[in-house]
Specification:
Elements (H helix, E strand, L loop, with lengths): L4 E7 L6 H17 L8 E6 L6 H11 L3 E6 L5 H12 L5 E4 L10 H10 L4 E6 L7 H16 L8 E8 H7 L9 H8 L3 E6 L13 H15 L2 H29 L7 H34 L6 E4 L5
Parallel strand pairs: 1-2, 1-4, 2-3, 5-7
Antiparallel strand pairs: 3-8, 4-6, 5-6
Length: 317
């Protein structure tokens, strides 16, 4: 019997692009079925992440037209990572493997063929890796490369140039379900699951319609969440920097005492103010980083649900 594939697609205000890309996903399911690689019971699962437009109406209409379409709607907007997790956990007990992909058409869906081949060859996780960044602006390309290198430097195990386009087997999904973090950063969590993995390269395209849901502000917030969710190295760097500043302070004290003894001390208002401002800035920055971690702990200990499902289409109930 051929394996069941679920294509999991988070959606937030995607009424412009969904009618364009949905038929593409359906065609991919049909092609893989004709090739004998997947079961006829394979599905396309949309997750409506609290959209304020007609996204959910389009999903329900699609599901009424073809049984391969199905969807769930969250009770409110919970962000891309939580919506994606909701879809993965919904598909976990219904599929043998699932592929997560955005609905904007930027990720080359033909790479799914190679992902399925890698799964059939024994890989539990297959990462979609961008072969180039020609479609990015110079700023986005530079910041993305800096982000991946910084995460590696922080000790986070991540696949370079990989976003959330990946295939996971049911076994890998079971492993992921054991992670109970409220602050999700799936690009770092999935590699922690382990198991045999492989990578498939693809070229990213321009968005087919609509606007990007990741402006610069959200990208920065996403990066900070990834660092603080998976690494404590920033706190260790603060500790090391504190030792250095303390050592310099001791040297400054010794110098002040010596100059006072030999009588060559000169009142220096500018130098005093500079030192105070420097130390004040360091302290505030350190408190900010530590506060970020305390805030993460605060959210984790509450144990609030990461998402709440409001509606489901008939095909997935």
């Amino acid at each position: 019997m051929q394996p069941i594939l679920y294509i999991v697609i988070p959606c937030y205000n995607e009424q412009e692009v969904l009618p364009i890309t949905a038929p593409m996903f359906l065609q991919k399911i049909n092609d893989l079925y004709i090739d004998g690689k997947i079961s006829e019971h394979s599905r396309i699962l949309f997750i409506n992440d609290g959209s304020r437009d007609k996204t959910w109406d389009i999903i329900t209409e699609l599901s009424s037209l073809d049984e391969h379409y199905c969807g769930i709607s969250l009770s409110r907007n919970r962000g891309h990572q939580n919506a994606l997790l909701a879809g993965l956990m919904e598909a976990k007990d219904k599929c043998d493997m699932c592929v997560s992909v955005d609905c904007d058409g930027q990720d080359d869906i033909d790479a799914i063929d190679k992902m399925v081949d890698e799964y059939l060859s024994g890989s539990e996780i297959v990462y979609g890796v961008r072969s180039d960044r020609k479609t990015d602006t110079a700023f986005k390309r530079g910041t993305a490369q800096f982000f991946y290198k910084m995460m590696r430097g922080m000790g986070v195990d991540m696949i370079y140039n990989h976003a959330d386009y990946r295939l996971m087997s049911r076994r890998a999904l079971e492993g992921l379900s054991q992670f109970k973090e409220v602050n999700l950063f799936l690009r770092g969590l999935v590699p922690m699951v382990g198991y045999k993995y492989s990578c498939v390269e693809y070229s990213r395209k321009e968005r087919m319609a609509g606007k990007s849901k990741y402006p610069l502000k959200k990208m920065i917030s996403f990066a900070i969440n990834g660092i603080t969710s998976l690494s404590v190295k920033p706190i260790r760097l603060i500790t090391a920097f504190g030792f250095i500043v303390s050592a310099l302070s001791v040297i400054g004290i010794i110098w002040s005492v010596i100059t006072a003894i030999i009588g060559s001390g000169v009142a220096g208002w500018a130098s005093t103010v500079s030192i105070i401002c420097f130390l004040g800035g360091v302290q505030l920055l350190s408190l900010g980083v530590i506060g970020e971690y305390v805030g993460k702990i605060y959210l984790e200990v509450k144990g609030r649900p990461r998402y709440i499902i409001d509606k489901k289409t008939d095909e997935i109930k």
